[in-house]
Amino acid sequence: MTTQAWDSFIERLLVIGVNSVQGLIRIAIIVAVAYVATKLLRSGLNRMEAFLIRATERTEAIPGAAAMRIRTLVSVLWTIGSGLLWFVVVLIAFSQVGVNIGPILAGAGVVGLAVGFGAQHLVRDLVSGFFLLLENQVRVGDMAIINGTSGLVEGITFRTVMLRDQAGVV
């Protein structure tokens, strides 16, 4: 091997090493910023939850019902917000490593579209449940008739309402 070829090889190794270290430092900074953003998001949602609970306790007929509803909504916002934040962090980290994220985004869009069509009923139920909780149409402790079944409402989630009928059947 000639001296010039050897020097070129060493120079390329140094460039690759320096670029790798720079990429790792950028990824570490991105993860640190995302961690701080996660903590700020959690703190902001906790403050919003406490404020909403204080604001609705005065007008609530059943103590604690508004708090349960608000906690459910805030937990959904937390899941969506933190999931979206970390998805973006992973994409940015991939781009720092040199991975082309265009095909990943296109694939995610196609998968999202397929899941959206496949899970139309699930999404419709979740959106309906969200508005059911948000608009306070049914509360725990109410008597309700749902799809011909009547009973006392024992629990409400985004997708289900648990009723206990007169015979005690859930």
How would you sum up this structure, described in words?
With 170 residues, this protein is mainly alpha-helical. It has helices at residues 3-57, 65-97, 102-118, 120-134, and strands at 143-146, 149-156, 161-164. A three-stranded antiparallel β-sheet has the order 1-2-3, with no helix packed on it. A hairpin with a 4-residue loop joins β2 (149-156) and β3. α1 runs antiparallel to α2 (65-97). The model has no long low-confidence stretch (mean pLDDT 82).
Helix content range of the residues, please?
A: over 70%
Class computed from helices, strands and strand pairing? mainly alpha
Shape: elongated
Number of helices: 4
Task: Summarize the biggest pleated sheet.
Answer: 3 strands, antiparallel
Short characterization:
With 170 residues, this protein is mainly alpha-helical.
Sequence-ordered SSE layout with sheet pairings:
Blueprint: H1 3-57, H2 65-97, H3 102-118, H4 120-134, E1 143-146, E2 149-156, E3 161-164
Antiparallel strand pairs: 1-2, 2-3
